[in-house]
Amino acid sequence: MAEDEGPVRVDSWIWSVRLLKTRSMASAACRAGHVRVNDERAKPAQTVKPGDEVRLRYDGRERVVVVCRSIRKRVGAEIAAQCYVDHSPPPPPREFAAPTALRDRGTGRPTKRDRREIERLRGS
Hints:
By secondary structure, the protein is α+β, with helices and mostly antiparallel strands. Helix content is 26%, strand content 20%. The chain has four helices and seven strands; from the N terminus they run βααβββββαβα. The strands form two sheets. The chain has a five-stranded antiparallel beta sheet. Helix 1 crosses helix 2. The radius of gyration is 20 Å and the shape is elongated.
């Protein structure tokens, strides 16, 4: 594998280093404004090179990575981890996550009263 493949599309690089599952998800994140390269909003075709900082907001958290190596093809997780330096803040602890409404199995559909209680718990 080549050490550095030159400038690579940001959506392809995000997919290649396994920050997102599919390239289409990476392209959609770019179009939605969830990807920034060097503090500027990135389009899917924008190129990244070693030394660039990529910020990705996905699934309620922000990933901040610095490109060490540009690759075009998806690689294994161990090799992908060598292609960037992760400066992301740690994920929030699970106990601070929103409470979920649990119902006993087999109790059927929630009634209107039950739905209102669930919405009250969620803060909706």
